Predict the structure.
Amino acid sequence: MTSTLRTPASAPGRLPVLGHGLQMKRRPAEFLLELQSGEPVVTIALGKRPAYVVNDPTLMRELLRDGDTFVRGGPMTDRFRSMFGNGLGISEGEFHRRQRALIQPAFHRNKVIHYTELMSRTVAGKLDSWRDGQRLAVEKEMDELALTNIVEVVFAGDRRLDRARFMAATTTVLGGLFRRITDVTGVLTRLPTQANRDYDAAAEYLRATIGRVIAEYRAAGTDHGDLLSMMLFARDEDGRPAMSDEQVHDEVMTFFIAGSNTIANTLCWALHHVGADPEVQRRLHAEVDRVLDGRAAGYADVAALEYTRQVLSETLRLRTQGLFNNRVTARDAELGGYLIPAGSDVLYSFHAVHHNPLIYPEPERFDPDRWLPERARALPRGAFMPFATGVHGCIGDQFAWTEMIVSLASIAARWRLEPVPGHEPKPVPAMTMPVDALPMTARLRTR
């Protein structure tokens, strides 16, 4: 490393013993956004442990694409690993590349087309169950829709799954993980509180349920044509199973969390913003009327649903799924002219970038026209990466886009969801950004 590299300055507001840990626990979104107005890279202290916060979106993209230097690790990853084991979201190096290669065929175009047929039927069935004038708990409706879709993909629609309990356990685990990651002392989440007991019980329920289904699949030896079957039937060159039951479990857990909760959250927030803005709603309805004419969307419709994608892009920006992420330097690293020593924690926040007024004017305003092609092209590189990039970029990003577009367009083609007067939904502190409650009144549309 050259001696001309700079050492990142320390962020203001450091407290004795706790460092910046109290701010990261009590107001992480605001604190990380404040750091955006400073240097491209700054140092904070999480307790006694230093961490480097990358604020520049171009540098964020650079670190994510250098998977050999900036790797998963550190206390935050250890707490993730307690839930997700060595799944794709956590694993590193050659093992990660091998797992990704084994799972990638599940997300090839023909597979996504097949999944879309399933999702289209699922959303049509959901819409058939609504009644004109019914007050919906939209957060529960979208949880159920997204979970049904991921069950179809992973478990071929296994009907024995207690979906309500599974989703409730998932929500509990995500909230508990957030508390663990923001607890810089590591003490609070070990106390015998009700929240910690609820987390442990929910985590055990998820592990046991997924383990049961894996065992049943192994015993039956039947290929159901789903993601779980693909992983169980994958073979090494010598003919032995390519994944142990434990590894399959870790991958299934990762896909359930990524493929249900985050999708449901994004759809909830999108429906809220559409319902709150008459002009956005009018334009969305005009598009789906032209493309769908009242039917549920299919794969062939996705490319034509341009404004629907803009609405979802703006939702992903304004309601970013996750406040921050981390990496650890495997060796002394240079990033934007700054020296980051080996073994250092490196934090980055897409949420902060997405709310930076120097990048997104009036960042708190919901404006799908930000995503008109000419405006989107003017953004800095790395300013919008809802599914990350590099070796840990989301393997199912096209599946996720397709599911969200098909779901939102299909809902808008048949229903107008009206906000309940006086109710303002709020985000719940968690690893993703769930809504606390979203009651809306369903009105059957007539064209």
Q: What stands out?
A: The mean pLDDT is 90. The beta strands are 41-46, 49-54, 70-71, 135-137, 325-329, 333-335, 338-340, 345-348, 415-419, 439-444. The first helix runs from residue 21 to 26.
